[in-house]
Design a protein that fits this description.
alpha+beta, 2 domains, Protein Transport Mog1p, Chain A, disordered N terminus, 215 residues, single chain
Length: 215
Amino acid sequence: MKNVFKPLSLFVASVLMLSCGGSNSEKQEEKDPGLMDKISTATSAVKNLSKYEEYAKEMEKRMNELKSLTPVSNEDLKSVLPDQINGLKRKSYAAGELSAMGVSSGSASYNLEDSEKNFSVDIYDGAGEAASAMLSLLYMSFNADVEKETENGFEKMVNYKDSKALVKQNKYGESVNSEIQWIENKRFVVTLKGNGYTYEELSEIQKELDFSGLK
């Protein structure tokens, strides 16, 4: 991972050379009114690279910690997927589907009686060799400020707790579906999907989820 940051020092040196003009700096600025704008843009880029480097170091440290941890049990995962959430009863539950890969996971679906509205909650534990590697990729993607819009919906990053969450919403005629994905406690990847729910409605369900039982 250290090789990733070698361009940073080169980039900083280039900016310093650009910003240093000796006694001719003021004359150069007069000839090129856009020089200060270029320097400002370059400085901002350096700051962004520095933030990226700090984030990557923090991520690498966390991944090493997770590698040495034991994944939670199926019972622990089931305990945070209760029989009822937001007035909807749990209709199905599954666990251990990724156990062959050494990943602890669980999922549950909830349906509203006499309605097409339903949502599901999927969780996988980032502890262990394989799971931590999967989680590292997600960590990096969450560092990007993604924002997309189409005629049918949107996709964007939002602040959530001390981290970020990726939210999506799509509408087709009268139907709507939404999704929220985030990393809980810097360890558990949670994906909440809702059919018949807007992003705002799904956010209310997200607030009812309790992961305090997962350590």
